[in-house]
Amino acid sequence: MSPVAERLAQVQKQIALYAASCNRSPADINLLAVSKTKPVEAIVAAFDAGQRAFAENYLQDALTKISALENYPIEWHFIGRIQSNKTRAIAGHFAWVHTLDNSKHAQRLSRQRPDHLPALQVCIQVNLSKEESKGGVGEKELSALANMVTALPRIRLRGLMTMPDPKTGPAVQQAAFVRLRELKDKLNQQGFTLDTLSMGMSNDMQVAVCAGSTIVRIGTAIFGARA
Ligand SMILES: *Cc1c(COP(=O)(O)O)cnc(C)c1O
Fold it and tell me: Please, what's the b/e burial string for 150-165 (b: 16 or more CB within 10 A of its CB; e: otherwise)?
């Protein structure tokens, strides 16, 4: 087995254990392999071990890899900061976007989504740690943006995403994940049909799983440390 395949199997085992520890079904937790900065060979190693969903942050890098792997039935997720001048390429090459945080980008993604592709699946990123440097809408803006996104024809709102401040400990991270779940539940009570909570990375996967994550975004634990 390749080192990537071994680590991938280890992560799958961890997800199953964490799920069992809080009475969740591992089948409800999707593993998204974050391949940013990693070469095509590493992605192929994970693909050969059965992984199909991969995420990238840096658009130019991502487009190179997507093109090199065009014959692989990979589901590509964009998890980087969105810039207006990049929305066309994002809309043209990805199945999912996890980092939507403003209405202008939502409108552009919907307008630019090619007709031959299904609607772009999106999560709204919520900034719960209030770090200035980080993307994401505040809680107060969330409902308005969700309403606006839902009205657009070519993108489909699936849920919410958050990234706690990595400098904080498990208690603060857990509070953020639980809050994100509450925000999703609140939107669903208002009539939305959100089914996705994109939360949990290599270092906070356990708390995220037990707080209700449906997509964990795992890079380091699968591909090793980034340079
Ligand atoms: C890099 C990144 C990840 C993966 O982080 P790891 O700690 O390597 O698992 C997940 N989500 C986002 C948005 C990222 O930028």
Answer: bebebbebbbbbbbbe
The pTM of this model reads 0.97
- Give the confidence band of 211 by pLDDT, cuts at 50, 70, 90: very high
Q: Is the CB of 32 under 6 A from ligand 1?
A: no
Q: Which ligand 1 atom sits nearest the alpha carbon of residue 166?
A: 7
Verify whether ligand 1 is closer than 6 Å to residue 218 (CB atom).
yes
pLDDT band at 168 (very low <50, low <70, confident <90, very high): confident
79 burial level (CB within 10 Å; 0-12, 13-18, 19+): buried
Distance CA 127, CA 55 (A): 20
Over residues 16-26, mean pLDDT: 97
Taking the centre of ligand 1 as the mean of its atom positions, its distance from the CA of residue 83, in whole angstroms, is: 19
Structure tokens at 22: 């809080």
- Residue pLDDT, tens place only, 117-151: 999 999 999 999 777 677 999 999 999 999 999 99
pLDDT tens by residue, 80-117: 999 999 999 999 999 999 999 999 999 999 999 999 99
Query: Ligand 1 centre and the CA of 143: distance in Å?
Result: 26
Distance 203 CA to ligand 1 centre (A): 9
Euclidean distance between CA atoms 49 and 43, whole angstroms? 10
Average pLDDT of the residues of the chain: 96
Whole-angstrom CA distances from 90 to 63, 79, 82, 149, 150 are: 9, 10, 9, 16, 19
- According to DSSP, residue 2 is labeled -
